[in-house]
Amino acid sequence: MSASEPIGHSQCTLAWSPWGDRFGYEIKVQTSKAIASLGGGQWSVVSGPAGVDKNMAIVGVLALQGSFNEHIAALRRLGVKGVEVRKPEQLQNVTSLIIPGGESTTMAKLAEYHNLFPALREFVKMGKPVWGTCAGLIFLANKATGQKTGGQELIGGLDCTVNRNFFGSQIQSFEAELSVPELASTEGGPETFRGVFIRAPAILEVGSEVQVLADYPVPSYKALGSSSEDQEENVGEEKKVIVAVRQGKILATAFHPELTADTRWHTYFLKMANDVGEEASTSLVPVLNLSSNQQTPNELPIFQ
Ligand code: GLN
Q1: What catalytic activity does the UniProt entry give for this protein (predicted)?
Q2: Which residue of 76, 79, 129, 182 pairs with 273 in a disulfide if CB–CB is 3.0 to 4.6 A?
C-alpha cells in the first residue's frame, strides 16, 4: 500500500473499496483527505482520528453461536475492531451490535441462559444501531413463524413477520445476485450484491416504518404461504419475498454478507452506527496501523 499523500496520524479508520477507481467509487471521506491506494482498489478514511481516545464507538458482535468470527473478520478488513459480546453487562461497552447468523433456537437458548434478553431488548429500545443477519434477523423480528414447538424468545423491535427456513432445509441453501439500489447508492459499487442464503428466513410482511432494501423472487404460492391447491393454480407466477430491511437504526439481512468479500453492508451499518456515534462520539475504533503499509490478512475463508 502506498499512500498518495502523507498521513499525519497512525490512528485512522479505513474502508476498502474493491472497485477503487474502476467504478469511480469511494467511501465518503469524512474527516481527512488522506487516501492510500492498494492494487486496483482504494482505501479511504471514513472516520478520522478525532475523538479516537475517548467516547469511542465500539461495534459489538453477539458471540453466542454462529458466524460471529466472520463478522469480526469482516470488520477487521475494514480496519474496525469488533468486540465479542456474551454477557449483558458487555452491552454497556458497545455502541452498536451485530447479531450473526447461526441457529436462532440455539442462540435463543444460550441468550436465555446468559440472561441476555432484557439487556438486548433495552439496547434496541434505546435506538442503538443493531444489525441482524439471518438468525439475527429472526431474533430482531416482532413476529416469527415456522418456529419449533413452544416457539423461541425473540428480541423484537423490527416491525415484520419473518418465516424461518423459508427456502427449505440446509441442502436448499443457495447464492443469488440481489438487486440492491439503496446499498449501491450509498456505498457505491455494483447494483447487485451476492447473497449467500443458508437455510435462510424470509420476511413476509413489514410495517409502514420499514424500508425494504432487497427482495427476492419466489413462486407466488410460496410467498403467500398458501395451500397445495393454490400451488397448482399459481404455477409459473412469481412474487417477491423481502430479504433486507432497515427500520430506523435496525438493519436486517436474511443472507450472510460476512461470508463474502463485498463489505458494503458492513460499511452501510458502520455509517448508521457512526451517525448515532457522532452525537456522543466521532469515530470508530481503528485496528489498522497506517504505518505498517500492509493490508490485514483475512484469517477466515470468504467467497470472492
Ligand atoms: N435457519 C436458521 C434459524 O432458523 C437460520 C440460518 C442462518 O442463520 N443461516 O435459526
Answers
A1: L-glutamine + H2O = L-glutamate + NH4(+)
A2: 129
